[in-house]
Amino acid sequence: MRVLGIDPGLTRCGLGVVEGSVGRPLSLVGVGVVRTPADAPLAQRLVAIEQGIEAWLDEHRPDAVAVERVFSQHNVRTVMGTAQASGIALVAAARRGLPVALHTPSEVKAAVSGSGRADKAQVGAMVTRLLRLTETPKPADAADALALAICHIWRGGAQSRIDAALAAAGTGRTRP
Amino acid sequence: MRVLGIDPGLTRCGLGVVEGSVGRPLSLVGVGVVRTPADAPLAQRLVAIEQGIEAWLDEHRPDAVAVERVFSQHNVRTVMGTAQASGIALVAAARRGLPVALHTPSEVKAAVSGSGRADKAQVGAMVTRLLRLTETPKPADAADALALAICHIWRGGAQSRIDAALAAAGTGRTRP
Question: Where does the chain bind Mg(2+) 1 (chains A, B) (predicted)?
Answer without folding.
Answer: 7, 141
